[in-house]
Amino acid sequence: MLIGTAPSTQLVRRVNAGAMLKAMRGAGVVTGTELMASTGLSRATVISICDELVQLGWLQELENQRGTGDYVKGRPARRFIFDDSAASVIGIDIGANKITAIVADMAGTTLTQTTMPFRTFNVPADERADVLDRIAADALEKAGVTADSVLAVSVGVAAPVSRDGEVLTAQEFWKSFDVRRIVSERHGWQVLLENDANLAALAERWQGTAQGVDNLVVMLAGDRLGSGILESGRLLHGQVGGFGELGYLDNVDGVGDTYGIAHYASLWGREALANDATSSLGTLCGGDPAALTAEMVFKAAADDDRAARIALDRVAHRMARVIGSISTLVNPELVVIAGGVAASVHALLPDIEKQLADFTFTPPRLATSVLGDGIVSLGAIRHALDYVEEHALDLYPASLRKHEAAG
After folding, report:
1. Using an 8 Å Cβ cutoff, are 237 and 243 in contact?
2. How far, in Å, CA of 252 to CA of 254, rounded?
3. Hey, where are the domains in the chain?
4. Which pTM does this prediction carry?
């Protein structure tokens, strides 16, 4: 008796179609021979899937001209181009106090990025949904595309999310705010959900400093610490989406919790200021220590302020322990620090690197992200594009839907 079954022909065809779309995105005009070389598929498979993708509206076949392209048995090669404008996707980052949305075309090119204030707590779910509607409508209008062109929406949330896109049930806030159901019911869009740090990892490997790196940790390190982890190029989730969650830091000596760099830079900056009234930190915060921000501490340290340097030395030591612990667990090639503090944290990397060997036998390379505050939304775009590629044979671009409706 045979155990298990071979993949269905349709499943294999979907995988092959996704591989071809990935190879064609941003490649310009390609021939069947070039697609064979980039995908490893046979000529018959390539041409058959290209014909189907042309019918679905994903590809355009270009008219051949003599003397152009390669030849097979005297005939000019068929030439195809991926229609970047065939449809669009939306990536949304729901943060603690703001929402950031990006609209992109099928090449992954950002058409617009929009940010709107967002109150997460003590606000009814319908009101939160209204904010999502407004930012999505605003982003689509600025991008110059219609709502019916959207094939997938990916949403990043600060909570563990399973492989099936379900938020960990222990997260009460997200239980009361069912983003996938609300957005899908209101717009009919395919809505995907993913952890924000996981999306940051996808963004870094796609367009950031981690391009080409298969074993990677990306840490969102602002007010809180969170991490997305790729192993052999695969995003890891764990049983219920908890892989990469950093709650274990509560039990790590010299760390003790999951608060991030921005939190401790300002906290320890206030403590250092209390011990050094001559520090320029007092001037920067207007004489009100409660108003001291992480940015102020980094600025003062760059000007060689002693109190600020003491505060950031403590931050560097703590981050060395954090990165050392996670590196011992998953052994990444590269750790990228991302989020709103990334640009400032670059100055701390030498101090962190010097101390890493004290906390792990396998110290990784370190880098800071250059993708800015939009990193989670950008990762959401990558997530949505992956979905579209995987389901290309089941999805119809808006242009084709309109044509069929007219017919």
Report:
1. yes
2. 6
3. 9-82, 88-203+375-406, 212-370
4. 0.87
